[in-house]
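Regression check, pyridoxal-5'-phosphate case 375:
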Amino acid sequence: MHYLDHSATTPVLPEAAERALSVMTSDFGNPSSGHRLGLDAAHILKESRALVAEALHASPGEILFTSCGTESTNTAFFGAARRRRKGHILTTATEHAATLSCCKRLEQEGFAVTYLAPDESGHIAAEAFAAALREDTILASMMLVNNETGVRLPVEECGRLLKRRCPEALFHVDAVQGLFRLPLTPAKWQCDLMSVSGHKIGAPKGIGALYLRKGLHLPPLLYGGGQEGGLRSGTEALPNIAAFGTACAVRAERFEADVHHVTALREQLLTGLRECLPWVPVNGEGDVPHVVSLSLPGCRSEVVLRVLEGDEVYVSAGSACSRGKESHVLRAMGLPKARIESAIRVSFGPSNTAGDVEALLKGLTKAAAMLKRDR
Ligand code: PLP
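Current build output:
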């Protein structure tokens, strides 16, 4: 099998799976219980929080566990909105559905939202961000790394501009595709809030985290027993939390080697494309090596995916959450319809090999020979 869809989700690291199993079967206490099993569970919770905090160069008190990146973003948006009740939100047209759906909902509730358009390379200039800020801006939100193109947005500059022009506004960064692709430094970037997700880094699905700058208080989404400092009630998903902490520790140790490895795979793919399929354009100027979006104009994405799947090569047409829909990211970049309809997203993980890239190139060449009509 050649799995090249790590932006959609990743296989669980064996170390993370073992940790989850031992927490499920041995250390299964409720962290809120007063007996020894509960205290042991509370200790695991504390340890795991510290590991996730380290991955974000944050302090443990700034990490809130959630069920996924989507919940982290919803907590940030609806918390920020309830705190101020009206005003302007600044975001980009290339965000993930988690952010765009929060924006749409808040527009219905009376908030004004500006969606910044990217240029053809997928980038958004900090100057455009600055020009769109308003006196009543209460929240700015942007992704660190785009899930479809690998383009990196200028969060550091935007954080600085926001805090200079609108010191009361909150800054949220969706770093779901940034964790262990780039070093994350939310404090340096003047972020108040940052969303991350476990299943993109080798932890199971069902665990995410929200970085909340020290001293910031937001109204919660969930009310109940007051877990997670009252911001996210509900018994903590300790097996997933422990696995997330373990995945962070494992990935941190291998970070530089992994980036180096994935960069070589990307180069192999781009060289192979130039040699075998020189007419295939790459969409956007990806800044991280993990994601490459390409198009086979004349060959519809879903058919190419089926051909590749026949040879056990797994990639996607774009975001897994927008399956079957035309990519709003490529559309916002102003790409021609033929490129949007034939887009293929390749996303690497540390476990990929040169053999996976060879299989992909072979599969793409086969699909193009079968499907492309105007050649
Ligand atoms: N933000 C980005 C950029 C993503 O790629 C994803 C998932 O693909 C999410 C948010 C949502 O994360 P989750 O699947 O953990 O809800």
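Comparison notes: The longest strand covers residues 137-143. The mean pLDDT is 96. No diff flagged against the previous build.
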